[in-house]
């Protein structure tokens, strides 16, 4: 029996069978026999999350533009499906043709969150493939990985053949070309990997040696031969207008997490928050022209029929004339009953009016992310939001009928004092006061959410220690006790242990690959799902592999320590990061790239707004 | 503008049979938008199009003919069936479209269920059905009990190429009915017999028209 029939026999017995049927609008259909390269795009989480990922859609369609490639998709099956598949001897399969993954030429993982590392291994396991790169010879799929997590690829170094660093649109095509050469000749896998290392943006971990000092820090990272570059420089697309963007985008049949058209209006962020990794790795800022955005929006509606367009970027207000663009889209969207959403908008009176106008269909919720409770600490992290502005916007918002206010903060930031924690309470209290003054009768809800600071590679805070679990707990309690005193306030906080593990995996080195493998053996998967995450299993895995997790999370590094991700060059120099870190210690802010170039180093890419600076 | 209520007849099979009821509505809404057909929407926050399925379709149900009605703010052209079938995902097919001037109600329906089970399945199933069984359902702490034969007009259990086929003729009583999957579940629980459903099909629905 073919795999498809076997799969369909299971579908009456599993949760949400729509995850496993493919068949979506705009899914690409090809004859697998007629292509040279079969590519399986793997997302290490369930369908509903993977299909909300814009990167997946861009690369899926980009690869399928090529006649010689068929790119299909595979997601992590939910546990009920995994069990059934195992019982029936079905290996992980693609949704387009129900082909088992081991039959593909290349398996590409999208790594957007460290917590999905165990799922990556699990997916290889469900495919019956050896986990270690070295155990997969020619004839078995090449495993590549891309996405933001590859900026520190080391924790997965043993399992992935080639990491793509940076934006994959161009690199991936170069890898395919090289793969064809490899597949149709007697080239060995080793030779293939050596040549891959020559493609800019490709990191082949097997071609580097890492040595350690007795205290556990890294002594050296060195390429195994002269032909292998000592550092891997990220790739970017220089111009968003000429780069590929799919407008016949695959559109799910079942509800997914972000069930809308996502249209990227610009890449990168000019603001420079010191904890933010995206702000560094996606530099420089590159705008897509409004003409293109408008054209894409129209085509996407025609081809997908969605009822919502989301204009995405890291900081929407920084798009020149965002009002005008949104209103232009609204012109044709309105009579087609399409909603426009503008995430990551900075809130002030003009943007409020814009929001009211474009987000007509949605229950209005205002979201602020001041990140820290006091101006001093916001200066430390270079978050340019003033408390007075929050209050004046909230006042306007209440007057305009907004009833839900969401506030996002981080606990455990460097230099944080209890006073800063209580500052969060003060903000919530003052917002509630404003409402009281206005004497409205409607019910309101103020939601305060805190996550815990996770020091991330390639940021000015990459050297910082994360708070201990005890400290996290204490700060959370302190805030909780105080927020209880304020009416209409709900408080939610992020899991301590999850933040801890995230910190460990983000800044991990090669020694973590064994731990991750052990964790999978001990049953870890879907770690970001509350019902599955079990830190004790992880602790056990660390213990068995003789690795102290605190070494990675709770330890402050010195500026001259060799960091595991030093091998990766983002364009932003280490000197710049260090300078920013020292400015943070003095609570001095740095202006955004729009005001003045502060010389981060990325200008060497000669793209976007840095050109001419 | 006057709204026109149209009645769409369509069939559903694998793989689209695994789309949930809510997702079906959204899917059709999107297809109408792609075809640039203006639908009538409800008022207020979160307006949604007025698409109503005469019978909700549980996940997994295949059917020869189902009906939804939709209110459009325009007249539909003759090419509507063709246009829909060009863009519908595999498994869904529009059969007929008509202007709805009357109302229809379901009178009774025929189902076929295919299950993988042991040889003696039919024997035990007959035995179970002889005991005038009930279906118990718990929803938010409330238990409802329905007698199967209040709704079931007839059934037949037979072996067809390795699988077991059970046909049901189900009556709709005061707008309420029972699902064949529930009968099968009740049976397999009571008899502790593993039966794996591989296909559920609504073969025919009889309607009555009211003006
Ligand atoms: S080079 Fe200058 S303008 Fe460009 S991202 Fe860096 S700081 Fe900003």
TrEMBL record, chain A:
PROSITE patterns: RADICAL_SAM. Residues 462-489 form a coiled coil. Gene3D superfamilies: Cobalamin-binding domain (3.40.50.280), tm_1862 like domain (3.80.30.20). Pfam families: Radical_SAM, Radical_SAM_N2. InterPro entries: CHP03960_rSAM (IPR023862), Elp3/MiaA/NifB-like_rSAM (IPR006638), Radical_SAM_N2 (IPR045784), rSAM (IPR007197), rSAM_horseshoe (IPR023404), rSAM_sf (IPR058240). Keywords: Coiled coil. The lineage of its organism: Bacteria, Bacillati, Bacillota, Bacillota incertae sedis, Caldicellulosiruptorales. This is TIGR03960 family B12-binding radical SAM protein. Residues 255-485 form the Radical SAM core domain. Signal peptide: none annotated. The keyword Methyltransferase does not apply.
From TrEMBL, chain B:
Residues 5-180 form the DUF2344 domain. This is TIGR03936 family radical SAM-associated protein. It comes from Anaerocellum danielii.
């Amino acid at each position: 029996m073919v795999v498809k029939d076997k799969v369909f026999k299971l579908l009456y017995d599993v949760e949400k069978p729509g995850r496993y049927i493919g068949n979506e609008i705009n899914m690409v259909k090809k004859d697998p026999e007629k292509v040279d390269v079969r590519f399986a795009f793997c997302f290490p989480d369930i369908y509903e999350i993977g299909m909300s990922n814009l990167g997946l859609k861009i690369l899926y369609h980009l690869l399928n533009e090529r006649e010689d490639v068929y790119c299909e998709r595979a997601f992590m099956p939910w546990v009920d499906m995994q069990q059934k598949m195992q019982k029936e001897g079905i290996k992980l399969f693609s949704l387009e043709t129900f082909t088992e993954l081991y039959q593909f030429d290349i398996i590409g993982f999208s790594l957007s969150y460290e917590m999905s590392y165990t799922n990556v291994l699990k997916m290889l396991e469900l495919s019956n493939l050896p986990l270690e790169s070295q155990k997969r010879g020619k004839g078995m799929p090449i495993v590549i990985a891309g996405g933001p997590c590859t900026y520190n690829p080391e924790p997965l170094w043993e399992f992935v053949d080639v990491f793509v660093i940076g934006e994959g649109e161009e690199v991936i095509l170069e890898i395919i070309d090289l793969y064809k050469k490899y597949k149709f000749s007697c080239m060995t896998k080793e030779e293939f990997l050596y040549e891959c290392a020559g493609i800019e943006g490709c990191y082949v971990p097997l071609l580097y040696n890492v040595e350690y000092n007795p205290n556990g820090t890294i002594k050296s990272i060195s390429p195994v031969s002269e032909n292998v570059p000592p550092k891997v420089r990220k790739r970017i697309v220089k111009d968003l207008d000429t780069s590929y963007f799919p407008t016949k985008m695959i559109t799910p049949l079942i509800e997914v997490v972000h069930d809308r058209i996502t249209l990227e209006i610009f890449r990168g962020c000019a603001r420079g928050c010191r904890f933010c990794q995206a702000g560094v790795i996606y530099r420089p800022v590159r705008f897509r022209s409004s003409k293109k955005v408008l054209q894409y929006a129209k085509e996407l509606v025609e081809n997908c029929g969605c009822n919502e367009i989301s204009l995405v970027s890291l900081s929407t207000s920084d798009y020149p004339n965002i009002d005008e663009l949104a209103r232009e889209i609204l012109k044709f969207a309105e009579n087609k009953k399409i909603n426009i959403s503008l995430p990551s908008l900075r809130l002030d009176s003009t943007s409020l009016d814009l929001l009211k106008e474009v987000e007509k269909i949605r229950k209005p919720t205002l979201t602020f992310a001041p990140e820290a409770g006091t101006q001093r600490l916001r200066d430390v992290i270079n978050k340019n939001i003033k408390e007075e502005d929050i209050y004046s916007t909230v006042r306007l918002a209440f007057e305009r009928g907004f009833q839900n206010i969401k506030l996002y903060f981080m606990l455990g930031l460097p230099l944080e004092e209890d006073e800063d924690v209580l500052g969060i309470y003060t903000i919530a209290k003052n917002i509630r006061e404003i409402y009281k003054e206005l004497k409205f009768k409607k019910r309101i809800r103020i939601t305060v959410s805190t996550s815990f600071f996770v020091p991330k590679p390639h940021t000015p805070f990459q050297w910082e220690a994360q708070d201990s679990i005890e400290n996290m707990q204490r700060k959370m309690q302190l805030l909780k006790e105080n927020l209880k005193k304020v009416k209409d306030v709900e408080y939610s906080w992020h899991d301590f242990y999850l933040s801890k593990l995230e910190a460990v995996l983000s800044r991990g080195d090669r020694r973590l690959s064994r731990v991750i493998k052990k964790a999978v053996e001990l049953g870890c998967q879907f770690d970001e799902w509350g019902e599955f995450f079990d830190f004790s299993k992880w602790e056990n895995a660390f213990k068995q592999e003789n690795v102290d997790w605190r070494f990675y999370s709770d330890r402050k590094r010195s500026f001259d320590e060799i960091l595991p991700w030093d091998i990766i060059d983002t364009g932003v120099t280490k000197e710049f990061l260090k300078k920013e870190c020292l400015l943070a210690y003095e609570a001095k802010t740095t202006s955004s790239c729009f005001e003045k170039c502060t010389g981060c180093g990325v200008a060497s890419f000669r793209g976007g707004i840095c050109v001419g600076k | 503008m006057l709204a026109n209520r149209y009645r769409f007849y369509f069939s559903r099979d694998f793989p689209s049979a695994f789309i949930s009821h809510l997702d079906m509505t959204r899917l059709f809404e999107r297809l109408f938008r792609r075809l640039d057909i203006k639908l009538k929407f409800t008022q207020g926050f979160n307006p949604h199009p007025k698409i109503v399925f005469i019978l909700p379709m549980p996940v997994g149900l295949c059917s020869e003919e189902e009906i939804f009605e939709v209110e459009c703010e325009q007249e539909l052209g003759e090419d509507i069936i063709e246009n829909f079938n060009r863009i519908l995902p595999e498994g869904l097919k529009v059969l007929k479209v008509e202007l709805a001037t009357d109302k229809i109600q379901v009178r009774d329906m025929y189902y076929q269920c295919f299950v993988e089970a042991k040889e003696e399945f039919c024997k035990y199933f007959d035995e179970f059905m002889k005991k005038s069984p009930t279906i118990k359902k718990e929803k938010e702490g409330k238990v409802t009990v329905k007698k199967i034969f209040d709704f079931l007009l007839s059934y037949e259990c037979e072996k067809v190429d390795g699988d077991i086929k059970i046909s049901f003729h189900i009556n709709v009583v005061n707008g309420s009915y029972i699902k064949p999957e529930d009968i099968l579940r009740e049976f397999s629980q009571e008899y502790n017999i593993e039966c794996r459903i591989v296909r559920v099909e609504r073969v025919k629905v009889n309607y009555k028209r009211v003006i």
